[in-house]
Amino acid sequence: METIKTDLLIIGAGSGGLSVAAGAVQMGASVVLVERGEMGGDCLNYGCVPSKALIAAAAQAYAPEVSGAFGVDLEAPRVDWPRVRAHVQEIIARIAPVDSQERFEGLGVRVIREQARFVSAREVEAGRHRITARRIVLATGSAPAVPPVPGLADVPYLTNETLWGLDTLPAQLLILGGGPIGMEMAQAFRRFGSQVTVVEGARALGREDPEMAAIVLDHLRSEGVTILEGETVTAASQKGSAIDLQLESGKTLTGSHLLIAAGRRPNTAGLGLEVAGIDSTKTGIKVDAGLRTTNRRVYAIGDAAGGLQFTHLAGYHAGIVIRSALFGLPAKVATHHIPRATYTRPELAHVGLTEVEARQRYGEKLEVLREALQHNDRAIAERETAGLAKVMVHKGRPVGATIVGAQAGDLISTWALALSAKVKISQIAGMVAPYPTLGELNKRVAGSYFTPRLFENRTVKAVTRTVQRLLP
């Protein structure tokens, strides 16, 4: 067995682990990276990248439905599923070199493609290697959670990890789970021509502002997606090539394929955490505000650390760990400025407090600003007027923002910056956005903060009249 000593050992080559590895090795630390599966992790291979490539293809299939309004008539689409799959794989392949073993070895990282497990508080075995490290980072990500539905184990179901291997386009797709993944895939496959039914035990997009989520759900329903909310699946079975789901309400749903999109669980099995004195729960590894585990030499980041499950959050965690593990500087995680987005059409994006959360915290001192996309000239020109921006303001500073509409995931970045840098609403209102762009939506909603203060204020009007009389 080869013995290796290093400054930093990273277990997991997903977004967070790769960010730590790249940053640390380029700053002069010796780094070993252990990955049992694919370089790039879930995001590159099964999550963010393939799903967005599929959504983009689905948008092309949907184009004939909306092109007539522009005076352009397109023929009905013919979906060639093998070519759609090839498109998805091509996008993965174009991005993969950035996350590849070759690139990281070129940077100076020792990459070991094996399963890792702790053998002591500071030692990890990976294949024929025993690695001792000053600091260890667990960036093992998460995997699809499968609910304990009777009979489900005997049914051929799909997850986000196996969806991309489909040989044929589903005729009738059943989706268990109405969160972001479930709703994104529901719309995409409906646009390809599949009949799609989503079953959600609570409220679809339940984490989001109900008013804003309703805009998205209504649009999906208008495209033909069936969304059943407050329905519990009590049993699953297979009859020939058909899959049946029994609901608590007595209904039976039948489909050709079943996609499980009911949340995720952290990848911690087989790591030997107990040997290293690292505590964990069902939601992830226990960490403090600085992402340290109960073993002070070991950090956990990204999905493995529980909490929010976003690729960009894992990248943010990487910066916290580099500051602490490499330089011994204090660093704590904050989440108030971390945005999230659901890439349906229209998109739904949020950062900070929701309206309900903000009202609970600030009461009558909270102001809620609203601006509809139907007043944005670019949205009008492109016939993308479904949507709304909602910004929560306390004492002249934004504390949360939700946007539904075209490019909401891009538009929310302005408010993520505002919360991160503690920018005043007046500074957003004073921004000059190019015309005509969707970005004007942010300026306009910020400007509405001053509408009652300036245009509905008697004192301001009196001062204006006085100044006008005095001016030569």
From TrEMBL:
InterPro entries: FAD/NAD-bd_sf, FAD/NAD-binding_dom, FAD/NAD-linked_Rdtase_dimer_sf, Pyr_nuc-diS_OxRdtase, Pyr_nucl-diS_OxRdtase_dimer, Pyr_OxRdtase_I_AS. Residues 7-317 form the FAD/NAD(P)-binding domain. Its cofactor is FAD. Residues 338-441 form the Pyridine nucleotide-disulphide oxidoreductase dimerisation domain. Keywords: Disulfide bond, FAD, Flavoprotein, NADP, Oxidoreductase, Redox-active center. It holds the Pfam family Pyr_redox_2. Belongs to the class-I pyridine nucleotide-disulfide oxidoreductase family. This is FAD-dependent oxidoreductase.
